[in-house]
């Protein structure tokens, strides 16, 4: 995501780019294709509300900056209520085609095993959540930092025609969406209390993936916890998380309130694939098929892909990077994307967008300041390059907690809608001014 976006921003300024992509030569555990910008964990860009949601605001800022990731996301969007979900295969194929066909882009399929020398000139390292071991070792060696990593998990994907629609139904929570397609964007599988309790028991007793010795001290990222880890934190945790039953009415039994609901979201434009929302897992494959078949409507489900878990390495950006995302010890090298400690597809692409634009300004001899922290992108870059405490630095999604308060706006839960609108209005004004500069 970050590398593709950075390249797009640079070539749109008339500067040629070489993209080094190892997939096609060196594969990873999580990727299924050799396309650029492949979506691995889910197919969602999350909320598209640019007035009261920080990630929706980030979408707005990226669109205003001619983002390739957002353009292709919009072109291959799927119904998802107030969220932006995309057909993952069509999306990554379109990103790849656009960059491959651009006259200023060269794509070389090779693995870069160490931080490039200064002879390369301006370089952006945007290796995502699965940086190769050799390059990661080189980065750690040159930055003299202890390894920082966390586990990321992948949710299973189900064939739509294997779902029992006599038990499941289509509805977005609280009927959100402007069209009927959006209001019926999610597939819902209800559970009564007895079924939920049996499901939790099976989840807790299931066989899990064994970690290697060198992985055992690696923490999870709280925004992407495996379902069995959530269940271990309390039997009701899932029922107040991805399985919350609120905002839904079962048309098969309209007078019966579900105790818990499993939601699935369309994963492709054809509607033939659905991913289980929030159901990242580290269960072994055979156990996944057994335990997930306990979900009403999924008793005979066939899986296009089962869930998994992988190690995600990132650098201690507050210590290592300056406010231009450059490596302090090697200022010709920038880092961008998830390796910098942002979490999420959109956040990663946004940091690629900034890295590309900042590199262009420097190449043209007109260095520019990073955007103000009153904008979504400015808040993220400020956080990773010095706003966060380096001693406790962990991956972060964009959120309004990263923004400076708006003057004369009351805090508290009751005033949240007004406050968030003030944040987004201010951000749009400041982001527009930064782009124009």
UniProtKB/TrEMBL annotation:
Q: Which PANTHER family match?
A: GLUCOSE INHIBITED DIVISION PROTEIN A (PTHR11806), METHYLENETETRAHYDROFOLATE--TRNA-(URACIL-5-)-METHYLTRANSFERASE TRMFO (PTHR11806:SF2)
Described function:
Catalyzes the folate-dependent formation of 5-methyl-uridine at position 54 (M-5-U54) in all tRNAs.
Q: What class of enzyme is it?
A: transferase
A single Pfam family, by name?
GIDA
Q: Where is the MnmG N-terminal domain?
A: 2-366
Gene that encodes it: gid
Main localization (coarse): cytoplasm
TM helices/strands, residue ranges: none
Keyword vocabulary terms for this entry: Cytoplasm, FAD, Flavoprotein, Methyltransferase, NAD, NADP, Transferase, tRNA processing
Q: Which superkingdom is the protein from?
A: Bacteria
Give the catalytic activity.
Answer: uridine(54) in tRNA + (6R)-5,10-methylene-5,6,7,8-tetrahydrofolate + NADH + H(+) = 5-methyluridine(54) in tRNA + (6S)-5,6,7,8-tetrahydrofolate + NAD(+); uridine(54) in tRNA + (6R)-5,10-methylene-5,6,7,8-tetrahydrofolate + NADPH + H(+) = 5-methyluridine(54) in tRNA + (6S)-5,6,7,8-tetrahydrofolate + NADP(+)
Q: What SUPFAM superfamilies does the record point to?
A: FAD/NAD(P)-binding domain
| Gene3D superfamilies hit by this protein | FAD/NAD(P)-binding domain
**Cellular localisation:** Cytoplasm
Cofactor annotation: FAD
Kindly provide the name given to this protein in its UniProt entry: Methylenetetrahydrofolate--tRNA-(uracil-5-)-methyltransferase TrmFO
**The family this protein is said to belong to:** Belongs to the MnmG family. TrmFO subfamily.
According to its UniProt record, the EC number is 2.1.1.74
